[in-house]
Design goal:
Elements (H helix, E strand, L loop, with lengths): L2 H5 L4 E2 L1 H8 L3 H10 L7 E3 L2 E5 H8 L10 H7 L20
Antiparallel strand pairs: 1-3, 2-3
Amino acid sequence: MNRSELGQLPAMVDVPTAARVLGIGRALAYDLVRSGGWPTPVVRMGKLIRIPTACLQRVLDGENSTGQLTRADAELDGLSMAISMSPLVASESPHLA
């Protein structure tokens, strides 16, 4: 999947689509989500699993993902959900260290 195609994706995608974006197989993607090793935040809505597209873009750009959906992610993705914000500790962020 190229950058142009990534830009055409909706704000949130399913796991197989996210796997295609990252160039990995569907089974591996589900295994990573299940084990907590997926490199972006994972949004679960009942049985549905969705991945924010903006977070996938950041992974492709080489940015470090914290695995937490922030208010900025929600605004970028156009999500209308309540997000609890926890204070960021400097030692947890490579950008603040």
